[in-house]
Amino acid sequence: MLELSDLRKRFAGGPDAPDGKVALDGISFAVQPGEMFGFVGANGAGKTTTMRIVMGVLEADSGSVAWKGRPLEHADRRRFGYMPEERGLYQKMSVAEQVEYFGRLHGLGPSAARKATADLLERLGLTERRGDAVQALSLGNQQRVQLAVALVHDPELLVLDEPFSGLDPIAVDALVAVLQERCRGGVPVIFSSHQLELVERLCDSVGIVSSGRMVAAGTVAGLRSAEGGTLRVVVRDPAPGWADGLPGTVTVAGDRHELRAVDADDQEILRRALKAGRVEYFGVEQPTLTDIFKEAVA
């Protein structure tokens, strides 16, 4: 398990900001083995700073990072896989040479690095491009190579900063399949993304950060249920005034009336709707992660 406790970080200021900028203001969360954790927030919210502290690129002013119940050390980080926000590939090196090189840096022998590279390039759809220079690839394919670099040494933890940025749907599916396979093997995965629908679909847990503070965290299902649901009723060609006195708002499109209400007596509304006309839809809709995000950072 990876556990972050009360991380704080302030960057030095300049003439226009003598007090500096608070990047993290008490960030805490934990990621369990085999869990996919989505880290979401606006640009500048603190996601990248948090990931850099986990990887040892930055040092926190205070707080702690623990791995498997003890303080995180340099030797632990060597067994992590990291995909930084700023991609770090050698543009003139071929795809296969690139991945093998990083495998060797992580301690793999020549044959092990070649085998791991071949396996990953096949999984990520890059086998036919193995001899191409990185600079000749599309941005999406460079993204795949960067992920292969993060995975080549079979890491115990994955920390990925915007891994889906710039990928087409086919590449997203390939990357998702690889990450889900690692999770099933017990590897914790942390990734940041602005694609909230993708986060909602993939992640077991989510943390929403705003201005360096964690403003919401928990399982996706737990966050959605905590927000409560909205009762939605659609009635076709109802009697005039059928919703008078009922809570909520009614929108009309032709002969189709839609009532939305929160904390309402659903049985009374259903009774009125059935009496008024033909009920096409009746149910409680949970908020999406996008809805929760907007509410949390407002």
Automatic annotation (TrEMBL):
Domain ABC transporter stretches: 2-236
Domain of life where this protein originates: Bacteria
One GO term in the molecular function aspect is: ATP binding
Q: Which GO terms describe its biological process?
A: response to antibiotic
Main localisation: membrane
Q: Which GO terms describe its cellular component?
A: plasma membrane
Please report which protein family the annotation says this sequence is part of: Belongs to the ABC transporter superfamily.
Q: Which PANTHER family match?
A: ABC TRANSPORTER ATP-BINDING PROTEIN, ABC TRANSPORTER ATP-BINDING PROTEIN NATA
Q: What is this protein called?
A: ABC-2 type transport system ATP-binding protein
